[in-house]
Amino acid sequence: MLVDPEVRAALIAGAVVAVLCGAIGVFVVMRRASFAGHAITDVGFTGGAGATLAGVSPLGGLLTFSVLGSLLISRLGDRVRERDIATGTVLTVALGLGSLFLWIQTRYVSEPASLLFGSIFAVQAEVLHVTIVIGSAALIALAVLYRPLLYSTISPDSAEARGVSPGFIGGAFLVLLGVAVAEAAQLVGVLLTTALLVGPASAATYLTKRTSAAIALSMAIGLAVITLSIALAYESYYWPPGGKGWPVSFFVGALSLAAFVAARAEVRRRRLSVLIDEEAE
Amino acid sequence: MQNAFLASGAIAVLTGVVGIFVVLRANSFAAHALAQISFAGAAGAVLLRLEPLWGLIAFALAGAAGLGVLSVGGARRDAATALVMTAALGTGALFLVLNNTYATSVFSLLFGSIVGISRSAVAGTAVLALITLAMLGALFRPMLFATVNLEGARARGVPLTRLNSAFLVCLALAAAATIPIVGSLLVFALLVAPPAAATLLAKNPLQAVVLAVVLNLTCSWGGIVIAYYTTLPVGFIISVLAASTYLAARVYNERVRA
Fold first, then answer.
1. Which residues of chain A are within 8 Å of residue B220 when distances are taken between CB atoms?
2. Which residues of chain A have pLDDT under 50?
3. What CATH number corresponds to the domain at position A39?
């Protein structure tokens, strides 16, 4: 399996995405921003579709729309309910535009499928290189933002007292998220991006309370998920119904959900055993 | 054409009422997720050579159940929603791959087929809408109470978990009813933006519900008319109109009430 260059490229691309999304995902989960994260991938999808239509770089369109989308969401909504509506409204516009673009380019029927579900086995070298560069920059930005982001996530009031503006940090985080998911979606599609952003991180934050440990664990779980998914997708060419191969996105979706459910069950088991021990005393 | 107006009229009423609670309960993600999950179900139904609508309903209800179970505890509700959605979409991708053809009938569910709708489809939509509205009618009071005053509701012994599950079921049925008409991508255009505008502008919940229905009717029927004359896709026009209602309401609110 590892002999196949397409598989090797897929593994590298998957690893890059898993590491990037795993790190940022911890903050996405802690800030309850899963909807925003997913919405930004859909907004990016629209940008990619529009760019393809206009004949320009899909990545450029994806990136531009992702960042614009995050800026718009952070401008429109601060409190929970407002942000929920803001995200929903921005998503409404983006999906509407996306459907318009798709309706216009009726020739490329398979394009939306690949933008939605990803085509990890068809990764191009230039895209991979650009992603590694921009992804690394995003991780560095995350490292720089780490302290203020952590403060404003866990305790916005004390962050404000220390001179950190939660609004600004929130906006900066969303922009960073926009860049990260645009990169990931370019490689693996919007579906996998959302799954890898939320699944490993939510499992990790269940299993440890220390943020730094959670980030490391999240990256590790993400790597495991994507590697296993690629392997299974490769193997599935030999499964029924013969010669077709099950899509990677199926395995990533299933495994990400499984990681979350397993971590949740484990935490409940721990809590239960603590209670039982206390009863026994 | 008449069928399109009838069907979208029923949808506008349904999504207006459901949408008020989606907005008040900050459940937009669940609405979007259930629409996507239902779409995967339709793909499965087509694979099994069944009517897509059954797949829509089955997966919508299963999705509502999954979301209900995993959101107990509340803290990671949004993460759970995202993961159930992507798992369902991945399954949908699998169904599409296994299906051999590109299944254009399934992809028409992405964008809806409001203009080509048949009388029987209108009837089916109306039935689902009525069932959902009846459920919401029964749930209206306790849900409003729980939404506006969570602690008070808890103190009074309102069964919050069951209420949440019941609402998710309503949302699921609303999504299943709406998707064949406006498509899964845009079903939640009518569930979020105009109801949100209504909550900004109205002075009490009942007024908000009525206003939401009025706004949805305007967007839907206006959208059909505009689409007819410009030949642009209906879904696109409706979603732009819907989003504009919210943005206009925001601007109005910030100017007038400032």
1. none
2. 107-109
3. 1.10.3470.10
| 8 A C-beta contact, residue A83 and residue B230 | no
> What integer pLDDT is reported at residue B100 of this predicted model?
67
The separation between CA A126 and the C-alpha centre of its own chain, rounded to angstroms, equals 21
Segment 121-160 of chain A within 8 Å of chain B by CB: none
Question: How much is the pLDDT for A107?
Answer: 46
B contacts of A229 (beta carbons < 8 Å): none
Identify the domain containing residue A155 by its residue range.
5-280
Count how many Cα atoms sit within 13 Å of the Cα of residue A115 in the half-sphere of its side chain.
24
C-alpha gyration radius of chain A: 20
Q: How far is CA A171 from CA A72, A152, A168, B111, B256, in A?
A: 9, 12, 5, 32, 27
| Chain B environment of A241 (Cβ under 8 Å) | 98
Q: How far is residue B189's CA from residue B238's CA, in Å, rounded to a whole number?
A: 8
Nearest-angstrom CA–CA distance, B242 and B7: 18
Most B CBs within 10 Å, among A45, A257, A272, to test the B interface = A257
Is A222 part of the contact surface with chain B (CB cutoff 8 Å)?
no
- Residues B180/B233, Cβ–Cβ less than 8 Å: no
CA dihedral sign of residues B99, B103, B106, B111: positive
Domain total in chain A: 1
ipTM of the complex as predicted: 0.89
Q: Which domains does chain B have, with CATH numbers?
A: 2-256 (1.10.3470.10)
The stretches in chain B having pLDDT less than 50 are none
- Calpha distance A21→A130 (Å, rounded): 16
User: Residue B152 in contact with residue B25, Cβ under 8 Å?
Assistant: no
Sign of CA pseudo-dihedral B55, B60, B63, B68: negative
Helical axes A248-280 vs A211-235, angle rounded to 10°: 130
What chain B residue is nearest to A205 in terms of C-alpha separation? B76
Is-contact A274 B110, C-beta < 8 A? no
Binning chain B into helix, strand and coil, the percentages to the nearest 5 are 85, 0, 15
Nearest-angstrom CA–CA distance, B71 and B61:
15
Interface mutation vs chain A, best among B76, B220, B237, most A CBs within 10 Å: B76
Distance in Å from the first CA to the final CA of chain A: 54
Q: In this predicted structure, what is the pLDDT of residue A13?
A: 86
